[in-house]
C-alpha cells in the first residue's frame, strides 16, 4: 500500500474468485523525488519566513528600546528641570517670607516700644487710679447688697400675700401648660417628620429594589441570549464540519471508485479469455 492525496491505498486488489489478486503499480520514483524537493522547498520558504519575521521583530524591538530610552532621558531631564525650578522657587519664597517676618517683627517691636513709652505713669496717677478702682468696687458691692435686700423683701412679700401667691401660682400654671402644649406639639412634629422620613426611605428602598430586580433580569436575559447565540454558533460550526467531512468522504469514495473500476474490468476480461482458452482445449 502507498499514500496518495487522500490517505493510504491498498496495492493488492481482490478479484471475483478467492485466489484472484491484482497488484497496483508503485508510483514512479521521479514523482516521489519531486514531492521530496517540493517539501524541502516549502520547508526552506517557511524557514526564511520565520527568519524574516524574527528580523522584523528584532528591528521593531530595537526601535521600541530606542524610543523608550529617549523617553526616559526626556522624562529624566524634565524632572530635573522641574525639581530645580521648584527648589529655586522654594528658596526664593523662603527668603521672601523671612524678609516679611523680619519687617513684621521690627514693626511690632516699634509699636510695643511706643505703647510702653505712652503707658509710663507717675506714682500720683497710679494712686488716683487705685482710689477710683476702690470706689467702683464699693459702689458695685453696695448695689449688689441693695439688689439682694430688694429680692428678699419681694420674696417675703410674695410669701405673706395670699392673693399675690395665688395669682403667681396661676401664672406659673399657665406657663407650665403652655410649655407642656408646646412640648406636645413638638413631639407630634417629630413623629410626623419621622413618619415622612420612614415613608421616603421605604419609597427609596422600593425603587432601589425594583431597579436591582430590573438590572438582574436584564443581566439574566443578556446571559441567556449570549448562551443561545453561542449554542447556535457551535451548532452551525458542527453542521459545517459534518458537511465538510461528508464531502471529503464522498470525494474519497468517488476517487476510489474511479480507480478500482477499470482494474475490475480488466480482471474480468482476463478471466473471460482464460475460460475461453480452457473450453477450446477441452472441445478440441
Automatic annotation (TrEMBL):
It comes from the Eukaryota. Keywords: Cell projection, Cilium, Coiled coil, Flagellum. GO terms for cellular component: cilium. The keyword Coiled coil applies. It is found in: Cell projection, Cilium. The keyword Transferase does not apply. Residues 91-147 form a coiled coil. Its main location: other. PANTHER family: CILIA- AND FLAGELLA-ASSOCIATED PROTEIN 53, TRICHOPLEIN KERATIN FILAMENT-BINDING PROTEIN FAMILY MEMBER. This is Cilia and flagella associated protein 53. The lineage of its organism: Eukaryota, Metazoa, Chordata, Craniata, Vertebrata.
Amino acid at each position: 500500500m502507498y499514500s496518495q492525496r487522500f490517505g493510504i491505498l491498498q496495492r493488492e486488489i481482490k478479484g471475483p474468485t478467492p485466489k484472484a489478486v491484482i497488484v497496483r503499480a508503485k508510483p514512479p520514483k521521479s514523482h516521489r523525488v519531486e514531492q521530496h524537493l517540493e517539501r524541502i522547498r516549502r520547508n526552506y520558504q517557511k524557514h526564511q519566513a520565520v527568519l524574516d519575521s524574527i528580523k522584523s521583530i528584532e528591528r521593531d524591538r530595537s526601535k521600541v528600546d530606542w524610543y523608550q530610552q529617549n523617553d526616559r532621558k526626556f522624562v529624566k531631564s524634565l524632572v530635573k528641570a522641574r525639581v530645580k525650578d521648584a527648589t529655586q522657587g522654594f528658596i526664593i519664597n523662603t527668603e521672601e517670607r523671612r524678609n516679611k517676618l523680619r519687617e513684621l517683627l521690627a514693626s511690632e517691636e516699634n509699636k510695643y516700644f511706643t505703647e510702653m513709652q505712652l503707658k509710663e505713669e507717675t506714682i500720683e496717677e497710679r494712686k488716683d487710679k487705685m482710689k477710683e478702682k476702690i470706689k467702683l468696687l464699693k459702689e458695685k458691692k453696695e448695689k449688689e447688697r441693695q439688689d439682694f435686700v430688694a429680692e428678699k423683701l419681694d420674696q417675703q412679700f410674695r410669701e405673706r400675700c395670699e392673693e399675690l401667691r395665688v395669682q403667681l401660682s396661676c401664672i406659673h400654671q399657665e406657663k407650665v401648660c403652655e410649655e407642656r402644649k408646646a412640648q406636645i406639639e413638638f413631639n407630634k412634629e417629630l413623629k410626623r417628620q419621622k413618619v415622612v422620613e420612614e415613608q421616603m426611605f421605604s419609597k427609596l428602598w422600593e425603587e432601589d429594589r425594583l431597579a436591582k430586580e430590573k438590572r438582574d433580569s436584564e443581566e439574566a436575559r443578556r446571559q441567556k441570549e449570549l448562551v443561545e447565540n453561542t449554542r447556535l454558533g457551535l451548532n452551525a460550526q458542527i453542521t459545517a464540519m459534518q458537511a465538510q467531512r461528508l464531502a471529503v468522504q464522498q470525494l474519497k469514495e468517488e476517487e476510489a471508485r474511479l480507480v478500482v473500476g477499470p482494474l475490475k474490468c480488466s480482471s474480468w476480461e482476463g478471466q473471460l479469455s482464460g475460460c475461453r482458452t480452457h473450453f477450446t482445449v477441452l472441445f478440441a
